[in-house]
Amino acid sequence: MTLVALLSMLFAGCREPMYSPASPATPPTVGAPISADASPGSIYLPAIEGGGSPPTPTAVPSPPSHPSPSPTPLPPPVPKPGYGVQVHLFAGNVAETLEWARGLGVGWVKQQVTWHTIEHGPGDLEWEPLDRAVEACNGFGFQLLLSVVHAPDWTRSSELESGPPADYAEFGRFMEQLATRYRGRVAAYELWNEPNLAREWQGDTLDPARFVALVAEGAQGVRAADSGALVISGAPAVTGINDGVVAIDDRAFLRGMYEAGIAQWVDGIGAHPYGFANPPDESWQDPTHVASGHNDHPSFFFRDTLEDYHAIMVAAGDADHRIWVTEFGWPSIEGLGGSDKTPVNTSGWEYVREVSEAQQADYVVRAFRLGEERLWVGPMFLWNLNLATIWGAGDPVSAYSLLRPDGSYRPAYVALRLAEPLR
């Protein structure tokens, strides 16, 4: 039986246990707002605030006590130890979220950590929410990647959010504390996120050399505390913009990172090869395209981003490091449904309307396999597992989720669960 036929037979009744996620008192804002009057030439950045920056960690509620709906039985998940998924463990129930992840058969999970929610002031550290998350990931047997972003205001020269500290040594100090606390329990650390975007590097100058200087401090901190942990460079964003103010083109930024000596500080090179509405194996140079827009620049294509990055690395004399795909995915607003039917504003990222749930499922599995076929690609982390259960159907991050707002499976979840790895 083909995968498509199996999905068709199984999917209609497949549901995960439902739960009520913990909600902040004030709805948080995720990333830059999508303006309804965005200019026709504006380009939506698919990685919204680096994979959905989490709200302030809250206490994890008790597991749901109500009975779960009777699910349609599925075959057991196919083990995929080299595959990963980004989770959000600071709202909802940690065990339930990790059970969803285990149902995919993946070996890795990624959690983004906002530094400013942990270190409120000199010596004022709130570790408990992250302690619970790390302990739970270890208990489930996952390898854990922590992506560390957003310096506290008291370390910065600017009150704008989402930027690095004024003194990069502060990042090294914090990373040493972090890696000391979780020595032997966190497999890898990704240092920062999309530093070629002004919105992730506010209060500082967009500059690959400055980013490498930050990474150098962070990497030294990790290695002083835990020599067994891997260090991954924060991935540039794919944007199609190269004005030096809003963004620096990711290819140009990666070349600058190599000119500044990134290879000596890291164990892997982070990448975010989002495909917009383009299939994973399509190239911008192909004579025809499936998608009607965002198809005229290499930054909009999954395969082009991977192959361009590898060519840049080889040209810089780096044949040793692998590309870690720390975020990727395809959005679809089809079938989000649930109790929250707030429409998604798609102005500026109209391509989301061109991706059906069936295509999303197909593209995700094909992308993982395309990465496996290239031995210079390391672990890959799909963005995201469960943000729809937290932010609801009306938020753009939910279009990328594997779950619906009510916790039921989307086709991409089932397809990834049953996907056979190549190696």
Description:
This protein has helices spanning 3-10, 94-102, 128-140, 169-181, 208-225, 250-259, 302-315, 357-373, 388-391, 411-418, and strands spanning 80-86, 106-114, 119-121, 124-125, 143-149, 188-191, 230-233, 268-271, 322-328, 377-382. It is globular. Strand 8, helix 7 (302-315) and strand 9 (322-328) form a beta-alpha-beta unit. It is built from ten helices and ten strands. It has one domain (77-418): Glycosidases (TIM Barrel), CATH 3.20.20. With 423 residues, it is an alpha/beta fold. It is 27% helix and 13% strand. The strands form two sheets. It has an eight-stranded parallel β-barrel, surrounded by four helices. Helix 5 packs across helix 6, helix 6 (250-259) packs parallel to helix 7 (302-315) and helix 8 runs parallel beside helix 10.
Brief sketch in words of this structure:
The chain is of the alpha/beta class. It has helices at about 5-10, 95-100, 130-140, 170-180, 210-225, 250-260, 300-315, 355-375, 390, 410-420, and strands spanning about 80-85, 105-115, 120, 125, 145-150, 190, 230-235, 270, 320-330, 375-380. The chain has ten helices and ten strands.
